[in-house]
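QA checklist item 7 of 12: single-chain prediction sanity check.
[x] sequence parsed
[x] length recorded as 132
[x] structure emitted
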Amino acid sequence: MPKGHFVVVSSASKPAPGEIAAQLEPVRQYAAERLSQAGEHDRVVRRHLEWVVSLAARAGNEFMRQQGLWSARLRDEQDNVRQAMERALAGADPEAALRIAAALGYPWLTMGQPDARVGRVHIRGCPREYPT
């Protein structure tokens, strides 16, 4: 394309959010397979969980002061939060899932997020007691 020319994409040609996720699923599966082959899958899953726990803690602490900013950010990160919680409860670290849900409880409630329901389901899946 010659310099200075732009491609205009009309809103009619933009895929819906669900379509984007469906298009990206094969890429996600390929990346997971490659990580497993390299012996890095568990390490990357752990780092992702740590990142989401950190994000949730920051959002929980700063939500009252910067509600607009964090509302948008948490909507953007919905899939990351959900995936981290699901993996944590599947055995990686149930306590981390509880920390995420506790930190994001108020933002979810305020935002009317569907994740508030997801958080309640995940909390029910957490162990009642943790070994000391």
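[x] summary fact logged: The chain has a mean pLDDT of 80.
[ ] second reviewer sign-off
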